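Protocol step 4 of 6: structure prediction from sequence.
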Amino acid sequence: MIPMACSRNARPMFRAPALLALCLCGAAAAADSVTLRVNVFPTAKILPMFVGVDEGIFARHGLKVEVLHTENSAQQREGLAAGAFDIAQSAVDNAVAMVDAAHEDVVIVMGISSGMNEFIVQPDIHSVPEVRGRTLIVDAPNTAYALVAKKILLNAGLREGADYKVKPIGRGSARLEAFFENKEYAAAVMNPPFSILAVAKGMKSLGRTVDMLGPYQADGVFVMRAWARANAQALERYLAGYVDSLRWALDPAHRNQCIAMLREKLKLPQQVAERTYALLVDPAFGLTPEAKLDLQGFRNVLALRAEIEGGGTPPPAEKYLDLSYYRRAIGMLGK
């Protein structure tokens, strides 16, 4: 795991205007600051993390947040179970896999988005059935967006092993590179900025996965249940800080600052950063306001896993959720 460069030229996390406006609560937070290690995929969907650190929002909630990158979801799942970090943010199906396959006591505590995923293919492919005989590239073969892609292919009459191969590649940037290295890598589920970069460089989108399959709770926040119990106040501060940062990021008044963050942190051209931000704030496709978990979308996650992985009837959603931390965090913020 590689620590993210969260600050700009190592500038101080606190800014004078913020201190003047919030001197009393800022002083209290500083006196009781808690360090949290948060593991994420380096995609555009972590814009609120950039905001929370750079704008001092996490600091005002009494937190020092260390943002860590993961190369793939297997590494993230193993790291969370081993205590290498405190909080994981990625597709919540990874938490389901940790509970059901690895028998780890993990709990999902907040949603983030429906994924902003698109089904991206090589330029010579015009429809999903044309993936036949070629390779689907994925992060990990049996979780999250790999299952989404397999379902899309299954709906087109294609079965894994018989009609196409699956190749684990890793996170979005790795899948983007792989597309251009091997034309046999025919398809992948991708999200911004990599979906945008892929199309800009000649790849093709066959559509948004939520349009193909219906509601889907993609990203979320999950932790070890024992850690959550032992660190409830810190977790609630973090969720409150994240939602506070999300509100800031979705505010049109901060558009230019957010685009600049995306350019700097993800090394994007201006036009790609602008297009990425437009998708992030799209109410029908982007980051979910208030980071509210879509319960029906999560039930669809469980149903998809049961269908593709052969698990029979999907378990009740409540087995994997504890949204009480989120409710208390929202209560801290008010409107």
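Step 5 (inspection) to follow. Residues 1-31 have pLDDT under 50 and may be disordered.
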